[in-house]
Amino acid sequence: MSLTGKLGQYQNEVTVTSLSALSLGMYERIFKVYTQAASDTDKQFYFYNILNKIQFPTNLDSSFFDLHTAVGRLPLTTVSYRIYDNIHLWWILYLNNLEVLRNKFYVDGGVQLKFIKPEFLGFIYTEMTNSTVFGNQHF
C-alpha cells in the first residue's frame, strides 16, 4: 500500500455501493481513497491519507477573484452558500484567505474575503485534477 498519491482510486471511481459519489466541489473528491483489508474478514476499509493537502498558487490571475464582505459573524459554510449557492465550497474560501482567517472556520462581520469567481471554478477543478502530486501536496 502506498500513501504517496500514486496508488488508490478517487471515490467516484470506486464501484462499491457503500461509498457514495461525491459532487464536484467537495474537498474529499480531490484526494484518492485507499483500502486496507481486515485481517479477520473479507471486508475492505476505505480511508484517505490525511497528510495530503491543497495549496493554491499565490500567482493566480487576479481576474479569477472577487471580494466578499461578511455581514455579521458567519461560518464559512454559510459564506460559501451565499457566494456559490453551495455549502461544500467552504474550503476554497478558507484556503484563499489563510492570512485573514488563520485557523478559524468562520469570518467576522466587516472582514473582506477573496473568492474565486463562480465562472472559474470549473477551470480550477480541472487544474487540480491535472496537477502533479509532490510530497503529498497538490499544486
Short description:
With 139 residues, the protein is an alpha+beta fold. Helices cover 21% and strands 24% of the residues.
In words, what does this structure look like?
The protein is α+β, with helices and mostly antiparallel strands and 139 residues long. It is built from four helices and ten strands; from the N terminus they run ββββββαααββαββ. The strands form four sheets. A three-stranded antiparallel β-sheet has the order 1-2-3, with no helix packed on it. The protein has a three-stranded mixed β-sheet with strand order 4-10-9, with no helix packed on it. The radius of gyration is 17 Å and the shape is elongated. The protein starts with 8 loop residues before the first strand and ends with a strand. The N terminus is likely disordered.
Specify the overall morphology: elongated
Radius of gyration: 17 Å
Q: Please work out how many helical segments DSSP would assign.
A: 4
Strands of the widest sheet, in order across it, are 1-2-3
Overall pLDDT confidence:
79
Major sheet: size, sense and barrel closure?
Answer: 3 strands, antiparallel
Oligomer: single chain
Distance between the termini: 23 Å
Low-confidence stretches: 1-6
What share of the residues does DSSP label as strand, in percent?
A: 15-25%
Order of helices and strands: EEEEEEHHHEEHEE
Q: Classify the secondary structure makeup into a structural class.
A: alpha+beta
Proportion in helices: 10-25%
- Strand tally is 10
